[in-house]
Amino acid sequence: MSTVKVRAIVTTGYGTNCEREMAHAVKIGGADRVDIVHLSDILDGSISLKDYQFLNLPGGFLDGDNLGAAQAGAHRLKYAKIKGKEKRLIDEILEFIERGGLILGICNGFQLLVKTGLLPGINGDYTTRLVSLTYNDSGRFEDRWVTLKANPNSPCVFTRGIEYLEVPVRHGEGKFVTLNQDVLKTLESQNHIVFQYVDPKLGEPTQEYPLNPNGSELAIAGITDSTGRIFGLMPHPEAFTHRTNHPRWTRMDLPEEGAGVQIFRNAVSYLRQS
Ligand SMILES: NC(=O)CC[C@H](N)C(=O)O
Questions:
Q1: Whose C-alpha in 12, 74, 91, 93 is 20 to 30 A from the C-alpha of 126?
Q2: For residue 60, which atom of ligand 1 is closest to its CA?
Q3: Which regions of the chain does DSSP assign to beta strands (E)?
Q4: pLDDT tens across 189-217, in order?
Q5: Catalytic (active site) residue 107
C-alpha cells in the first residue's frame, strides 16, 4: 500500500463560486488534504503550489467574465508577479507541472487553462494559445444535463475506466473552437480530445442542440495536454457526487455515489502510485 499523502489545492476568489463543491469531490475522491485557497494568498507568497500535487481550478465568473470568461484571470496568471519573488503565477504553475503535479480545470477553470495556453499543451508547449471557449451558439446561458463519451485512446489520467458520463453544464461561453483546422486535426490525431457531447440514444458525438449544448467543434467537451496530467472540461463532474444530484434519481436505480467522483478518485490514485 502506497504511503504517498495526496495534498490538493482548490483556488478561489475574484468571482469563483464552485470551490466548495470541488473541494468536496476531491475529498470523497480520497485526497488526504484539501485546502481552499484564495488566489491572493498565492500571489502574496503566503501559500505555495510546492506544497501540493493536485491543483483544482473551479467554475465561476472570474472577474465577472470581463473581456470574456477567464480572460482577465488569464492575464493575472501570466503577468502578475508573486510578492517578494521574481516569479509570476504561471512560472509557479509551470514548475508544478514539471514536478509531475495534476491540474483539473472545470468550466471557468477550463476557460482559464485555454486562455493562458496551458491547454492544449501540445508536445509540452504550455504558453501558445491555440484554442478557446466562446459564446454558446444558443446565445444564452445553458444549464442542463448532458451525456459525455470518453476517448479510450486519450492519455488523460482522470478518465481511466470511464466510458460514458452524465453531468450538468452551466455556462454561457462553452463553445470549444480552434485557431484553425490544423489545430483541430492535431487535437484529434494526438488524442487530446477527452470528452465529447453525445446523443445518449446513439452514444455518438453530436452537433445537435441541446444534446451538444453550445455548438463546440467536433462536440468537444474536454481536452488534455500531451502528458494526460492537465485536464479541462466544461461540464461539472463535481456536481454529481451523490445519486440525488441526478435529475431522475427518484425514477432510476442509481448507486449512492455520483458517477462524477470517479474523475477525482482517478486523480488521487494516480498520485498515490507516482
Ligand atoms: N459555471 C461556470 O464556471 C461558468 C463559466 C463562465 N462564467 C461562463 O458562463 O461561461
A1: 12
A2: 3
A3: 7-12, 33-38, 54-57, 102-106, 131-134, 142-150, 164-171, 175-178, 193-199, 204-205, 220-224, 230-233
A4: 999 999 999 999 999 999 999 999 999 99
A5: yes
What is the per-residue pLDDT for 2? 66
Cα(129) to centroid(ligand 1), Å: 19
What's the pLDDT tens digit per position in 106-135? 999 999 999 999 999 999 999 999 999 999
118, three cell numbers: 496551458
Of 51, 37, 261, 44, the C-alpha closest to 167 is 261
CB distance 166 to ligand 1 below 6 Å: no
Superfamily assignment of 7-273 in CATH?
Class I glutamine amidotransferase (GATase) domain (3.40.50.880)
- Given 92, 107, 171, 192, the catalytic residue: 107
Which residue stretches of the chain have pLDDT < 50?
none
Atom of ligand 1 nearest to the CA of 170: 1
| Best of 20, 22, 61, 176 for a ligand 1 pocket test (most atoms within 8 Å of beta carbon) | 61
- Predicted complex ipTM: 0.97
Cα–Cα distance between 18 and 141 in angstroms, integer?
A: 17
d(CA 191, CA 188): 5
**Which is the closest atom of ligand 1 to the Cα of 111?**
5
Active site residue: 92, 142, 173, 238, which one?
238
Question: Which alpha helices (H) appear in 144-260, and where do they start and end?
Answer: 181-189
For ligand 1, the distance from its centroid to the CA atom of residue 60, given in whole angstroms, is: 5
What pTM, to 2 d.p., does this model score?
Answer: 0.98
Q: Locate 103 and state its grid cell.
A: 491540474
